[in-house]
Design goal:
Blueprint: E1 8-12, H1 17-28, E2 32-37, H2 40-47, E3 54-58, H3 64-78, E4 83-86, H4 101-129, E5 132-137, H5 150-173, E6 180-186, H6 212-219, E7 230-232, E8 235-238, H7 246-257
Helix pairs in contact: 3-4, 4-5, 5-7
The structure holds NADP nicotinamide-adenine-dinucleotide phosphate.
NADP nicotinamide-adenine-dinucleotide phosphate binds next to α1 and α4.
């Protein structure tokens, strides 16, 4: 695939930061984009930058019914979903001892379960059309200990496990080399609302627009590319073992069906 023109993309967390910058750039590259998030004003202002190319849809990704409604609306209006960028995320710091456990759970609900909701809704259509690219924004925090990041780190580690497992699941479903890819991208430190108050050196951070080339490169990857990978910029941080374990996956499937 050489171009994103005509592709239909859903960007969760598309009202601000990396998601908004990606939505605008995707539209400039000819894709039809649906930005999803909770705050309608933000979503509408992103949509207004490319009228006709970007549409907004209010959706809390932690609520499965709302995510399901989002995909139903996109399938009804556009007929397909080709690209999914899971950029919705929250980052609240606290020690585990002092965390309000409802807040702790909320981080998991948005960052991890929210991504799972969207992937669950996107995957059947992508497999049926034998084309799809799913990227979830991860973080080095998944592997880097932080005294006040237990919830965020756990959510991002979960995103990696989710992605690897779904990559295996795609092979389960399609024994030939599928043209449906799922990967995690670490955006790198980026100046957005997410990190407000948690960094004192914003000048050292990149802008949200700097992340798009790496998102685009993953969306444009050819059929025979790896998946279940963890990627930082163009570097594969962790390859996953999806291809190597294909035989084993089939054996697992056989076991699961019994
Ligand atoms: N900035 C960085 O340095 C950095 C580094 C590593 C990873 N990341 C990851 O990159 C992703 C994008 O973050 P960002 O830096 O661009 O921050 P951001 O500007 O705060 O974007 C996060 C977006 O997620 C949306 N969101 C939050 N809760 C939601 C929910 N329940 N349902 C739907 N949307 C929700 C927010 O919109 P609403 O509030 O309107 O819903 C917001 O537009 C996040 O997953 C983050 O963990 C960022």
């Amino acid at each position: 695939m050489k171009s994103l023109a005509g592709k239909v993309a859903i960007v969760t967390g598309g009202g601000s930061g990396i998601g908004a910058a990606a939505a605008r750039a995707l539209a400039a590259d000819g894709a039809k984009v649906i930005v999803a998030g909770r705050r309608t004003a933000q979503l509408k202002s992103v949509a207004a930058t490319a009228p006709g190319a970007i549409r907004s849809f209010q959706c809390d990704v932690s609520d499965f019914t709302q995510v399901s409604d989002l995909f139903t609306s996109v399938f009804a209006n556009e007929g397909q979903v080709d690209l999914l960028l899971n950029a919705a995320g929250i980052y609240w710091q606290n020690s585990l001892a002092e965390f309000d456990m409802a807040d702790w759970r909320r981080i998991i609900d948005v960052n991890l379960t929210g991504a799972a909701h969207a992937i669950h809704c996107a995957l059947p259509g992508m497999l049926a059309q034998d084309f799809g690219r799913i990227i979830t924004l991860g973080s080095r925090s998944a592997h880097t200990p932080g005294a006040v990041t237990s919830a965020y780190s756990a959510s991002k580690a979960g995103v990696e496990g989710l992605t690897r497992s779904v990559a295996h699941e795609i092979l389960w479903q399609r024994r030939y080399r599928p043209n449906v890819h799922i990967n995690v991208l670490y955006p790198g430190r980026t100046v957005t609302d997410l990190l407000e108050g948690s960094t004192d050196q914003p000048e050292k951070y990149q802008s949200p627009e700097d992340v798009y080339p790496f998102i685009k490169a993953l969306f444009l990857r050819p059929r025979r590319s790896g998946m279940g990978q963890i990627i930082y910029r163009r570097k594969i941080v962790s390859r996953g073992d999806v291809k190597l374990r294909a035989k084993q996956i089939r054996a697992n499937l056989w076991g699961a069906k019994k």
